[in-house]
Design brief:
It contains 3 helices and 4 strands; from the N terminus they run H-E-E-E-H-E-H. It is an alpha+beta fold. Helix 2 links the parallel strand 3 and strand 4. The radius of gyration is 13 Å and the shape is globular.
Length: 102
């Protein structure tokens, strides 16, 4: 099992514990480049997560997609082995915010 697969498995576990609906888009010739590894929704709030491991960093295209999610009011994160333990807390904090649609 690769280090990134371990991170993805832990993300799945956390999302399931929180009761989050999620899926993992499959890349291919007809898919959009840079789409995050996880797309989800919890309490009506949109979540996008790019998983990384080790020294791997998100690409410029991946960061652009995450920024588009943020601009639309969603939670967009890059999660790796250094910050995965705070994922649940980040989602919980985000869920407690008061949301105002502009």
């Amino acid at each position: 099992m690769t280090p990134e697969v371990k991170v993805k498995n832990r993300i799945k576990q956390i999302l399931e514990e929180l009761g989050c609906y999620y899926f993992m888009p499959i890349g291919g010739p007809y898919s959009r480049i840079g789409v995050p590894d996880f797309i989800g929704c919890i309490d009506g709030l949109y979540i996008a997560i790019e998983a990384k491991a080790g020294k791997n960093k998100a690409t410029a295209l991946q960061l652009r997609e995450l920024e588009k999610v943020r601009q639309c009011g969603g939670l967009a994160l890059v999660v790796d082995d250094s910050n995965i333990d705070s994922l649940k807390a980040q989602i919980d904090e985000w869920r407690r915010r008061e949301w105002v649609v502009q």
